[in-house]
Amino acid sequence: MPLDAASVNRTVGRARVVCEPRWIMSYAAGVPDARPELYDTRTNLVVHPMFTAAVEWQLLGALRPEPPMTLDELRRGVHVAHDVVIERAIEVGETVEITAEVVDVGRRATGATQTLLLHARDVAGGTVWRTTHTSLFLGVDVLGAPGWSTTPVRPSTARSSDREAENVIAERRSFIRPVDAHVYSECARIWNPIHTDVAVANRLGLAAPILHGTATLARAVSIVTELVDVPLAAVRRVACRFGAVVGLGADIRVRLLDTSSSRLGFEVRNARGERAVRDGLIAFGP
Question: Structure pTM?
């Protein structure tokens, strides 16, 4: 079934989620990031900034676009862009309410895109974070004229040129173990069979399961902040576009491309040298 452009401006889901300390620590372990502050329960645990994606999945995993798609169409959904703005640190053990609003439905040669604004609020109604999450549904059409929402959405990071991407300040290789998609799935509580089920991956045209986009992004955030000694607690925004797939049992290269007093630019290359994460941005502050 096609994506309905009339869904723009519509709230399509709502969920209340508890940010349990065990889950917060498990997420960091699944990235993996071994910094002690992510596990020291004697103090206020630092929450990995990409833990926001794990909380959001509790809603995203249950969403069904209208009109309803087939299971095969849903499984052909690809996460193509992510932009999370963190207004304040997540408090360990707090309950947040996530709402999902459709802010864009678009058409590409390869399928239909849908951008959701995911808004996380605390029990008092204050904003904890906001995410714009864009998916591409391969081979799916759009019903009606594509268009943007009237809801103000922070623009994503500007595209970097190939020349800028060759200006590598620092680089680190990281090995993706064959089991890392399983580990991340369980630690993050983000499950999609394309990452862990060989038969499903084969039916979708892949030779083997691939790593989650948010797993690649989270690992890159950890590596980039370590390269320049920026604490994870200072991160206030993470944005990128996803490109080539990341296979299991191979290296990725995380490349720092730009630094300033308040932001870092980066990309991730897969084992074939293709950009798996492009236009990466980390913004930080007090």
Answer: 0.92
